[in-house]
Each structure stands twice: as structure tokens, then as C-alpha cells.
Amino acid sequence: MPATARPLSPFTSIYRWQIQMVTSIVHRLTGIALAFGTILLVIALLALATGPQAYAEVRAFCGSWIGTILLVGWTWALAFHLLNGIRHLLQDIGWGYLPAQFVRNGWLVSIGSLLLAGVVWACVIAQGGGA
Amino acid sequence: MSKSQSKLLRTPLKNAVGLGTAKYGVHHFMVQRITAVALALLGIWFIWLALKMVHLDYPAAHALIAQPLNAVLMLAFVVAVFWHAQLGLQVVVEDYVTTPGLALVIQIAIKFLCFLGAAASVLAVIRITLGH
């Protein structure tokens, strides 16, 4: 750390909260959450490779209340990171940079992620609930 | 450096201008986007697969992953996931961990863990496909 306090660039404590900064922050947070969530995918694959007993234990964990909460959270995180990631890719090719556009597609992505996660869990429930 | 520079009466900028870039500056950016495109496509398949697997018992779930197409796509998915995760977590650590030694340790740990995660997943998929 420098000995004297230097001026810092404005950060979240100074900016007014707005949709484009929220989607950016949430994109990072969901990315970190998904990196940890992938541990469950690795465990599920290893259990499937190990045998019925190990796989039954993973299914039991996914069906428990804490497993269900984690899965619902990761479903929404995946939905948001997927949709907002596509938005970022489109921005990378120069699309949607006008303020009106990125405010609109920021809300589209946010509401769309809730809808996508909702549809996925509606499919799960329609099939007969959790594990 | 500064001594030889002053002898040549050239600024460091003069030595670099006109040489062009090494073309590697955007490598991280590009790989993160390429794995993102892969994951956007594979993510749709993964959601479909996960929904299908929810109510399958062990033999049926095992048989589903063992299908060649699903096995190949799962291999691609786990490799792309851990590659993309490493690149993303790297940027987060670069942005928020300001202690150089700690940042280095975390960066190496992330790389090791992401490789181990990918290797374990690949081994599991191979075992599901070829084993039992």
C-alpha cells in the first residue's frame, strides 16, 4: 500500500446503482458461484462412475433441503450467467452499446434469467418433484 | 537500462514504436470468449441432460451418459467449464487481491484445482463410457 492516500477511481460507494453495473457485478458473482457449483457436477460424475451406492448418496444430497436450495440457486446462476454471457458476446462484436439498448437488454437478461430458471424447475416439478 | 538508453539518446518508446504487437495480448480475452461460445451452446444441451437425469435411476442415468454423443459433449463441457472458470476466477483475483504473494498462491491454487476438476470429470466420463 502507498504511504500517502492517492485519489481512487470512483467505485460502487460513489456510483448510483444502475442496471448495467448490477448485471456486471452479478455476472461475476454468479461466475464464482458456478465455479464452486461445478464441484457437485464432478462429484455426480465420479459417483456415476463408482457405482449405485455412491450415486444414491449424491441423489439423496440433491433431494435434501440444502441440496435443493443449492440446486435452485445454481440453476438461476447458470441461467443468468448464460443469458448475460450471450449479451456480453454480442457487446464484444459491437452490438447494443447505446444507453437505451443496454438498459433494456440488461432488464431483459435479468427477467429472462428468472423465467429460464423458473421453466427448468417447472419441468422438474412437472416430472414429479425433486430426487 | 536507463544508462544505455541515454547513451543511444533514445527513449524506451522509440524502441517499441513501429514493431507492432506480439499478438498475444488478447490471448486471455479470446480464449475466455471462445470457451464462452462453446459453453453457451453446450449449456443448452447440459440443461436438457440435467432435466432428463433428474428422475432416472442409476442404470438409466449411467446408460444416458455412456451414449457416445452425450459422453463426448460431457467431455467438451467439463473441459470448457473448468477452462472458462480458471480464466474468470483469474480476473477476479487480479482485480481484488492486492497482496502480490497471496495473489500468486491463489492463482496457482485456482489453476491446480481447475485442472484436477477437469481431469477427475474426464476420467469419470471415460469410466462410465468404457467401464462396468
Number of extended strands of chain A: 0
**Main sheet: strands, sense, barrel of chain A:** none
What structural category characterises the helix and strand content of chain A?
mainly alpha
Major sheet description of chain B: none
- Averaging pLDDT over every residue of chain A, what do you get? 91
Strand content of chain B: under 5%
Number of helices of chain A: 4
Low-confidence stretches of chain A: none
**Uncertain stretches of chain B:** none
- Please provide the ordered H/E string of secondary-structure elements of chain A: HHHH
Number of H/I helices of chain B: 6
Name the chain pair with the biggest interface and residue counts per chain: A-B, 32 and 33 residues
- The rounded Rg of chain B comes to 22 Å
How large is the share of residues in beta strands of chain A? under 5%
Overview of the molecule:
Chain A is built from four helices and no strands. Chain A has 131 residues and is mainly α. With 132 residues, chain B is mainly α. Chain B is built from six helices and no strands. Chain B has helices at residues 2-8, 12-16, 27-53, 58-66, 68-96, 100-130. Chain B starts with a helix and ends with a helix.
SSE topology:
The complex is a heterodimer of chains A (131) and B (132).
Chain A: H1 19-50, H2 52-63, H3 65-92, H4 99-126
Helix pairs in contact in A: 1-2, 1-3, 2-3, 3-4
Chain B: H1 2-8, H2 12-16, H3 27-53, H4 58-66, H5 68-96, H6 100-130
Short key terms for the protein model shown above:
heterodimer, A: 131 residues, B: 132 residues, mainly alpha, elongated
TL;DR of this structure?
Chain A is mainly alpha-helical and 131 residues long. Chain A has helices at residues 19-50, 52-63, 65-92, 99-126.
